[in-house]
Every structure is written in C-alpha cells, then in structure tokens.
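Customer ticket, subject: "Can you confirm the structure for Zn(2)-C6 fungal-type domain-containing protein?"

Message body: Hello, I'm evaluating your service for our small team and ran a test protein. I'd like someone to confirm that this is what the system normally returns, since I don't have a reference to compare against.
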Amino acid sequence: MQTGQTGAGTGDLKTLAPAYNTLSSRLSPPDLPRIKKRSNACEACKKRKTKCQGTQPCEKCIQAESQCVFAEELDRRKKLALRQAEQELRTAYELLGQMVVASDNKDSAELDRLSTMIKGGFLRTQGPSSVEQKDLSDVSTSHSTTASSSAASLHDFATLNEDINRDERSRATGYIGRGSEIAWMQKLSEELNKLSFSSESPQPQQETIFEDDMTSLSYHLDHFSFPNLSPGDPQALPTRACSDQLISIYLARVDPSFPLLNRTLFLSQCQHAFTKSEPPRRKWLIILNLIYAIGAKYMQLSEKNWTDAIDDRTFLSRAIALNADSSLLGEHADLQQVQIWVLYSIYLLASAQVNRSWHMAGRAVRCAIALGLNLRGVGLNVDATSRESRTRLWWSLFVLEQLLSVMTGRTSCIEWRSFSIPAPIPFDEAQFHCPQAAEFISDPALRERTFVFTGNTPKFQIDARNQALQAVEPNRSLYFFYLADLAVISHAAVKAVYGLQSFGLPKCASDKITHFQQMLRDWLSSLQPCFQFCDSNGRLKMTTPCPERIALALAFYSSQIILNRPCLTRPDMKEGTRTRYPRSPFADATALICLQSAIDLTAILPDLPNMDWLCEMTPWWAVLHYIMQALIILLLQLAVGPVDVQRGTMTEEGQGSVGTAEEPGVILERAKKCLRWLHAIASRSPSSRRAFISCERLLHRIAAIHGFDLEGIPQTSTLADRTANGGLQHYYAPHGSAQHSESAYSDPLREAQWWGADFTYSEPDVEEQAIRPFSLDPTLLEFLENAME
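Agent reply: Thanks for trying us out. I re-ran your input and got the following:
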C-alpha cells in the first residue's frame, strides 16, 4: 500500500503517514490525480440512503438530474484536528496557570522546568491528561475533587439560575454568588433533597421536598426599608451627654476597624459645634449624624442605656435630608463625601441591609478612586497627618468592601493589583511625633520598605517586616495593619479561587489554595504576642479575651473557611454502583482545614450565649456572618459525612470519621452551640431570627436522614416576638410581597406597546399597569353584555 511519495509529484500528494519503505516509494507512480472528496454525503443521497461518491456534483445526482447540495459539516479529519487543537489549548492553559503560580511563588526552578517542557514541544506531544497526571497524584486521583453535589462546584460559578429582576424581594436580595454562605445553604438544601430520595427510607412525599431560592434563604433584611421619618430640623443636635455617649461608642467599637476619621480633628470639631455659635458645615453634620446612627444601632443591640428617645432612624433621616441638598448627579465628590458613603455603608451593614450596604461601598470606592486615594502620593502639598488620614480612609474602605464581597459572594469592584498606596502605618495619631513613628513618616521610602503587606512579598522582606512590627508598642493602628493585611490576602484568595478566570483545571486551583494557605501562615507568624490567638498550625489557643485579638481570629478563620470550602464536598457515585469515589489526599487535607477552621471559630464563642460579651468583644456588625459561615460548614459536614481517601492503591477513612477529633458527634455539638447563639441574638436581631429558623430547619432535615439526636436545641416557638415580621412594622416599611402573579411572566408582545428594558415583566411594571387608568371600546362593552345575556 502506498503511504507517501518523495518524487517530483510530492506537491500533489498529502502525506498521511511517514514512508517506512523508501524502495516502494521510489517505485510508486510519479503522478496521481487528486480526487476532491468529502467525508459526508450530499443531501439527496442522504434522503435516498445511497452511497455518495463525495464529488460535487456526485454521480447519483447527475444520473437523477437533481441538484447536488452538501451541508456545511466538518469532515472527520477537521474534527480530529479541532479536537487536537482544543486539547493543546487546554494544555497551554494548564501550563500557563502553573507558570503564574510559580512566578507568584518566585520559584525559578519550576519556571525553568516549565520553560524546558514548552521548548521541547511538550504541547504537541502530550495531551492535557498527561499534564494533569504529572505531579497530580495527590490532587486529582478521582472525580471527587471536581464532582460534588453538596458543594458549590467551581464549574457552576459563571451561571445564573434565577431571574433576579422578577420581583421586589429578589431585587432587594440581589445576586448571591457561590462564595456566600447563603449560596452554601441553597446547595445544602438541594443535597438534602437528593439524600432523602437516595436513602433506604420510604420515598418522601412531594410536599417534603424543599425548593429554596436565594431570596427565601437570605437572612438579611434588605426586603425592609426605612420609613420616611420627618427629620424635623436637620441641623438639630442631641443633648451634649447623648452626643458624647454615641460618639464614644463609635470610637471604641467601630473606629479601630474602620479608622476613616482623623480622630483628633473630629473631636475638636465636636467641641466647637457644641460651644460656638457658628453652625457646622452641612457635610460635617451628615458625618456626625451617621456616627450617631451607628452608635444608636449598637445601643439597640446591646440594650445598655437604651431608650426610645435614642432612635437611629432619627439620625439617619437627618443625614439623608442634609445630603439631599446636594445633587448626586452634578456635584463632584470630595473626601467628606467618601466618608459619608463609607459611614452609610457601615450603618446599613449593622442594620443587616447587606445589599444596600454593598451598593454604598461601591459608590464610595468609585469616589475614592476618582480622588486618587488608591495611589501613592509623591510631592503633594499635603501634611503627613492628612496624608496618613487619606491612607487609612482607603484601607477602611478596602476592608469594608472585602467583607461585603464575601457576604454577597460578588466580585469586588477593587482589584488588589490596581493600587499603589502604602500600607497604613502601625502608629496611633498621638504617636506621630514620637521618634520611632516620626522616622517612618518623614521617610516614605523607608516606610514602604518596612511596613509591607504579606501578599507577593519576598520571604526575606517579610522577616524584616515582622521584626519591625515586634518592636512597635501594641495599639489600635497596629491591629488595623494586621486586619488590612489579612483583607488583602483574603481578597486575592477569593478572586483566585472563585473568580471566573479560575475555571477548568484542578491543578491550578490546588496550587492557588496551597499558595494562599502559605500566605495565611506567614500572616500568622507576623502577629505580636498580644494579638496571637492560635498555634503555628492555626489551631485556636485563646488566652485572655481581647476585642482586637478576637476580631482577628474571626476574620482569619473566616478566610480559611472560604479558601478551603471548594474541597468540602460529597463525591459522586461510581457509575452503576452505590460506592462513592474517594477523595484525593490533598482534597481531604484541605476539607479538614475548612472544617477545623469552622470548629475553631465556634470555639471562640463562650459555651453559654452572652450578649454583653458579644457586643463588647466581637465586631458586632459582622459576627452573625461569621457564625453563619461556621454553622453552614458544620451542617455540610454532617450531611456529607465521613469520606474515604485514596492513598495509592489503598482507600482509608478520611476526616470526620468516628474516633477522630471531627467525628459526627463533635460536629453536631458545635452546630447546636451555634444555633443556641443564633437564638440568643435573635431576641434583639431580626436577621439572626431568620438565620436561626433556616438553619434549624436544615439541621432537622439532616437529623431525619442520619438519625441525629437534637436535644439541646432551642425551639422556634421560644423566639422573641418583637423580632418577628409582625413586630417590625413599627420600625421598617416593608416592600410588597415577594409573591409574583402569573401575569408577571406573561408575554409582553401581547401589549400594544411595551416600554420595559427587555421582554420580561418585573413587579413594578405589573403594579404600574394595574393602577394605570384605561377605557374600553364601547363596541367591545356591548359585545360583552350581549355575550353575558
């Protein structure tokens, strides 16, 4: 058989394989006619079900005197070439991802190895399977690292499975991304439905199947709005005693985590406002009223010295009335306007209005970027104290934006590589004139070399940074430095693991998780003894309670949970069996970190709920989010149960097995503890009430499947009435019902004219049409009357 030609006619032949017999090649005919054939048949031959020659026109069509038409289809050779190109592209993406990780880790040896592979034609000689299998035995041994029904698989992040615009309540909740604990609740609910059907118990009735959407599972209060209270005189001030109390609460409980004000300057301005006849400026009054509102919200939660005369809504209405004087469309933002948006976002966050808070934080980010607050100032005619105030304003906004992005599961509007502003200096304002602080303030280059963040910083520079931090006397600014550093790590980790660009290849995901795990360990090593809360392995080792230490611990374990969450999964069944795939050692170890972080987070809380402790020791505006993160992880583990691990050719019991520190009995007790805390907070927080009801229902469903004992869980009937929806009517102005009628999804093309944004109805459109005056044609009325008769 002829396989090739080396003679003069080579240009007319397409070589399909190398010629192994040169003699036969020389004896082959010099020229062969090139036949233009197709691998598919024409349309007429397909209908006749006859063999088609492939030429155009073909012999059958010539004989039948019919038109010979070939459909545009890829022939087999093109399909094979396309498949090979797709494989090479996937392999290229895999290698590119490994090179990015190696570059971030400053691993020159790994970069050299990958470069050699590429130069040696690796992409053309090996498919993606060989790339993934090389050095992947501990990452992707089975389907279990990517296939899971209980976890928010990284492959479905880029999809939207519900119409957010369908009604007022869904818009109030907004899109909830897969990194949010609310999305984890939905996945858990879906998993429990599957477990109910797959169990050996009788098949449940249809009404026992829960179809929970994000809106029904959200424990936030965005579906409520504040009533339009009359502010009276917007420039009115409370009594001096009330003002001092609310400002003291803000400075003690909120300002350390969000130092967006120049404390010394602000206190002097307050003194001037109450002692001088000159009225304060409008924007300063807005800031003051928002601080009052945040302080009043804290007093409402703590119930210390709380009276009806101190109403956060009153201060909020004054701030809104004062801010309404400026045109949001025409007035350019300044530093005070950025502070206003940040304070308003903090107030909304403390009020469980998370979607609104996210919107306000985004507005503040754009204003800050427009003012260049994200950039390092060089040669500016700005004093050192003011420059540092702007730096802290930016990092306060960054910490807030990162927290809200995690709570909503949405992409942050800040790219952590898009700013050059230095880290906040770890000295309080009162220390700026001390020799140690003055040296760094007067020498920006020295400051930027010394006080660097952990992310993408060489090891030797981190060691020098840690040594410098150990010499700083503990203070609020040092705490904020640690908090901002952790926020940058968490921001980069969430973007790398949950971002749309992270899809596709398990090796890249595992490398990223490992990379950020090391970053978190480096961050732990930088903590001063007074801020340390765990050992070198991240296990909780709490000493004397301290608000700053507890806040850092909660934020750290929250970061660990969300980083390692993708590996806490229930593997799929092997086809045709009732046996599940085992986890890889990497996935099992990572899932254990996630689970252990949830256990350690719950261990921070006292065994008996204590609201005084919670208000004084925790970041009270976010503590419910932290508890819910840990609780959902515990519930996921209870639902998933112990998962076997593949180690070579052997299968072993994995984390969560009986006899380990994470066995089901231990997890169940931790989950009960979280529910008791939610029940206690629910007496003062409507959002905690909603969280308790949802999680208690999920735990009851898990217990029904696995037979757990639920003794010790408070009953829903014992929740305080004042946080129920009926008891909130005096405080909030609720939106319309989340129920939507069938007409909300009717065909808009039936209308004479449609004025919507697209061809779907939303609730306001239906309401507008319902109240719109209209008249009927008299002829139509006469027809209807005759029909009725």
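A couple of notes from the result: Residues 498 and 568 are 15 Å apart (CA to CA). The radius of gyration is 32 Å. Feel free to reply with more questions.
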